[in-house]
Structure formats: structure tokens, C-alpha cells
Amino acid sequence: MKNKLLRQIEKLYQRRHINNLLRRGVFRNNKRLSFLLSIIVGFISVTLIAIYLTGRVTSVANTQTTSTIKAYTLPEKNTHTASNTDTYTTSAANTYTFPDQDTYTPTATDTYTLATTNAYKTSWIGNSFGGGNKWVQIQVTDMYVTPDGTVYTNTDWDEAGREVGIYKNGDVIGKADDLHGWGRMGGDAIAVDQKYMYVGMQQSADGKPGEDYPPKGTTWYCIRRYNLSGKVAPFPQGRGWDKSMLIVSTKGKIAGLAIDGQQLYASDKAANLVHVYNTATMKEIRSFKVNNPSKIALDKQGNLWIIQDKNKIGHYSPTGKQLPGAITDVAQPSAIAIDNQNRLLVADNGPRQQVLIYDIASKPKQVGTFGTQGGVYSGKRGEIGDLKFYGLSGVGTDAAGNIYVSNVGFNRSGVDLRKLSPSGKLQWQLLGLQFIDTADADVGTDGANVFTKDEHFIMDYSKGSGKEWQYKAYTVDRFRYPNDARLHTTPTAAFVRRLQGKRLLYLSSEMMSERLLMYRFDGEIAVPCGIFGKGKEDWLANEPTNSSWIWIDANGDGSPQANEYQATGEKDDSVWGWDIDSKGDVWLAAEAGYIKHYRFGGLNAHGCPVYNTKAVQKTAMPQPFKTLTRIRYFPEQDAMYLSGYTSDRPNIDGDWGLVGTEIIRYDNWSKAKKIRWRIALPYEVKRDPKLHIKAMDVAANRVFAVSSKTADVFVYDATTGKQVQQLKPGPEVAGESGWIDIPFGIRAFRRSNGEYLVFVEEDLKAKVLMYRLPG
């Protein structure tokens, strides 16, 4: 067969390629060349036999292949652009078939790489865009809409530098430059005229010597001027390294901005002042007293409406005279704007979760609302709907009367930016939902439902990359469950489990893995029902303060009471390892060198999982570990996966919060604890950036480990411990990812069709990466 293949290869390449070169006269009458070409043909023949025996070949342009790839040089393609769909295989007659071979001129410098059935593709969840130049920022604290429908947003921080985002027609069209680094951040206010945008921002003492920065220990709270494309626009007497900043305060942020002709109004909440500046010169014209000023809107008469305190909107003349008609019937005004009919729009971020519409021609009178009363908590609580708002942070209108709202959830959940017609029809929606977060699939639905710490997504895996997900629900209920830890802390990773037929959500809390949170579901709402905690929590009362503890919700109200706590009697410090196995048992791996096993005691009358501190089993750290950092247990196999540092591979530079240097599988864990294999994880601390592992997970027959600073996912066979693959962000997400910051920044799930889903934290551009690997 090999000889037959060799003859066919020789015929194919001598006829199509070598003779083609000779016909062109490139090497005619060159005997040395004939000898050289014979050698080349022989080499090509042997190479192609190796490829044939392996099976499948993919173009080098498809980088989504195994880490053990070998390169093969073939005289193929020149003008043809390789793609992920190019395949080169042998036919039944043992001859090679090259798709597109008639559409380009062959060359001898083309490289092809060996691929296997482990080819994968990259996708993502939670952002309207995959990355590169386009992503929706992670938060919006203020928004300004121009008459033509261009939306300008501002926030303190966006991981990738879109503190000020510019959007139009459902697309990302730009951002403001230079608000990320050298002590600079965005802020809480933005306003735009026909020439400039004026951005509330912060500048701290973190700059280059000799340039204009505040002294150490001082922060400037500034208005920075930009042109409408996002480039800084310096002005005479401007401050900062580029002379584009106007210092308003050193005490607190600018809370609101508004423009009327050549006058720019700025709320200085710390000083209880509103400053008025000339937009051409940026010099102060005057200022006047306003108690606790925040967002500002200017009506068509030039008068100011200013949010003050929790439920008051004051009414002022341009010179600061208090006018009659203050509005005091809004539960929690968070943003205001004037529409094309000179009506005042007020975003009420209280229980109504609506935009309230006021006729302000004389005495303010509410004449309408926009959005469904109760917002996301109307109808089926938590379910997303076009007119169901949640966490309103901005409102605006264009010349046609379309209404724009920014929803950010509660406690910085993410961005949901919408444009709606005056009648309430959704025109477009942009999402940037995930930050310091990852996802997990619901085994009870074979991965058709995926959850992050705050969101529920419905999946359709028949669709292309980035299109598989649909935003189904926001699972936090701020008003019914005000003691939900998600409103007071920053959970970072979801574990979805099915216990006694019920879906439960467990969350690792904080980047330091401080606690484990437990939730039951009431429809789409994840109801707080338990916490593995330690010591004092600022948002709670009556919890044990000198030891670790467990809270189980006994009365179903989602809020801890004193009689619902169980103290453990000791404080579990530095716990980086949590796991909830398929039976519901909770496992804790402490850096101090022990494992705790809390057995699942069933669900109580309200559907909360029950655990008992008196029934805990404590086990010493097994050999050869010196430090334990992660834990994963599979009761069906009695297989335990532990990670950390060993004597053979210690923690060289003292980094904390990492997986460690080894993952070890123990078989027959409950009795013999026999080591099956040891994986020596990538660990290069002298490299820049360092190569070390931040998170791990196990699904079916694969172990997944993701590096912290390079976001490489290393894939191992769970039976042998051998590496079988390496995953990197593909072209679908511009080949990029931020650092993996959280201890449980990777989740893996195997669907019933064999496909692996691997979810990885990607907080650079407000999403979760999803790798899809064939089974």
C-alpha cells in the first residue's frame, strides 16, 4: 500500500507541480536541479505517507489543534486563504484529495499542521461582541444621548479601558482615550455638546516625574475634555500631563454634568456646590449652593433639575435660585433627562424599576411611565423582557423621542443597554454582563441551561460562536432578599448541582475564596438558603465571630436569623479549595493541611440543602502534598483529585491563590488513597509573564487546568494523567483573554453527545469564554 501511495504521490506532484515549474522555464536545463527535485519529491513522499497514516490534515491557519502538532511542508497553495474548514484527507483509493487545488498557484513554502479529532472552536457568553476592538464595557454609571442617537457612557473602571464608551445603532463605535493607567480612571458623569464631550474622571499621583500630576496622597476629581471621537481636547490653563483636565475637587467625585449652550454645570457633591464653567475657555463663571447635588438635567427654559438625597429632585434657575416644583415622590431617582417634548424623565431605581415621565410646564405632574412596573420582578420574577428594567443607571432620548436606558443590575452586576421606540418596541440591546465570573452547565438539562453568578442563559449549540446563548433571567432579587450575599460581596464562580431532583446554585465568594454560598430556585430567582462562612460579616448580624460557621435557612425567608447558625468551633483560614460532589457533599481543602467533608443531609422543607457541623469528617492532607489548594471528588468512582505544592515541586516564589505545581489523582479514596498518577503542572516563575496555573476542573475523562496570566488551558487524560491538548483563545475572540483572577475560573461539562464545554473566566472584555471540544 505504501509503495502504491508513493507512486501516486510522485505522479501527482511531478505532473502538477514540478513539471509546471519546468514548463515556465524557471529551472530548465539544470541537471543539478533535477537531482535536487528528486530528493525533494522523495522527502515529500515520505512526509505524505506519515500524514496519510495519521489521517487528517488542517491548514496552519486553523491554530485550534493539539499541542503536540508537527509541521509538514507541502508544495500547495499560494493565493488561496486557508480556513478552519479546509481539510486534506486520503480517499478510499489511497490518493490525496486537495480541495481548492485548482483555484491557486502552488508553492513549495506552504506549511500544513497535523490535526486530530481534538480540534475545537472558541465561543463566548455574556457580551454582544467577541472582542478585538468591540466589546460592551462592564459597568455604566452615567449616560448621555445626543439628538442623533449616539450614546456616550461613563464608569470608573473597565478592565480593557472602555471607561467611556460610544455606541450607536446597536454597535460599538468608539471610546475615550487615556482613562486607564497612570492613575487615571473614569467617573460618574458625562455630558456632550456639538463639539466636545465632558467626562468626569479621576487622576491620582501615579505619573511620570516632571509631568503635571497631583502630589502623593491627593486625587484630582476632574472634568476632562474630549472631541467627539474620543481624543483629548486640551485647553488653556488645562491641567494634567496633556493639559486637558479641569480640577473640580480633591474631596469627591463629580456626581453630575449638564450643558446649556456655552455653560457647563457640574455637581460637586463633597462641597454641596454646583459649578458653572464656560465650555470654550473651561473657566469658572460662578457656583451656587445645592445640598448633595448629583445628576443634572436642563429643560428647554434653561432651568436645572438636580437629583438630591435619596428621593428628592430639586428645581433651580441657572443662577442657583431655588424654584418651586421640587419632586419628592420618586423612591430612588438614579438618572434624569429631558425628552423632545420638554418632559422630565426620571429613572426610578426603587421597587418600581420604571422611567417616570413628568410634565414640567408648570407644577411638575407625573403624566406617564415607561417600562413595566416592577421591572424584572414583574410577571415571572427575574425573567428578562424588553420593558423589564433592573438597576437603572442612565436614561436619555434622541430627537425622535426614542428612549435609551442602561441597566446595571445591583452591586455592579453588568451592563444591559437598550434603545426602545416611544411605544416601547425594542430597537437594539447591547450586553456586557460578566466580570470576575465564570459559568457552569446544568446537568439536569444536558447543558441547555447555563448559569453565572447572577445570570441564567438558554443555550442552542447548533448556532455559531457567540450566538449559542440567550439571556434568559437575572437571578438576584434585591427587594425580596436584601441579605443576599451577592448584594454585599463579590461572588466569583458558579457550581450548578442537581440534588433530589432540584436545581441548586453554589457560589464561591470573593477572589480570596472567603466563603461558599448556597441558593435554591424559586422560578428564575436564586434564593439565598445557606452559607459556609467564617467570622464577622458586615451585612449580617448575630453570626459567630470567633469561628467558622454554617447558616442554613430554616424558615425559608432567605435571611439569616441567630438560631439558624452552627459554629464549627475552629476558624478555617486560607481555604482555597471547595467542591460540591454529585451527591451534594461539600469538601473543603485548607492550606493549613487538612480536608473537611460535610455530608449532604437532604433538603429541608423549603428546599435548602442541609449540612451539620457535628457530622463533619476531618482528614489530614495526604502525601506527597505540603500545601493543599484545590479539591475535586467523584463518589461514583471514589476518585479524588487534589492539587497544591509538593516537596518535589515547591512554591518557589510564594505566590498565593494558585492551583500549585501538581494535580494528583487518588483511587479508592475512602479506604486506601492509592495514587493513580501525578501531573506536573506548567510552572515557570522566571518567565515573563509567569506561567502558572490558577484554576482546574475535571469532567468525564478530562482534567482541565488554566494558566493565570497567559489563559492557556492544558487538557489531560483523567485515566492516564497524560496531556492530550492545549487550548488558546481563537480568532472568534480575536485570540485574546485577560488574566484568570479567581480560584474557580474554569468549569467543564460533558454533554450527552460527548462534546466538552469548557467555561473560562475572561474579565478583560466582560464575557466568559466557552471552548467546545468534540467528544
Automatic annotation (TrEMBL):
ATP-binding as UniProt keyword: no
Keyword Cell cycle: no
Entry-linked InterPro entries: 6-blade_b-propeller_TolB-like, Quinoprotein_ADH-like_sf, TRIM-NHL_E3_ligases
Domain of life from the UniProt record: Bacteria
Transmembrane segments: 33-53
Swiss-Prot/TrEMBL keywords: Membrane, Transmembrane, Transmembrane helix
GO molecular function: zinc ion binding
Protein name: NHL repeat containing protein
Organism in which the protein naturally occurs: Fischerella thermalis JSC-11
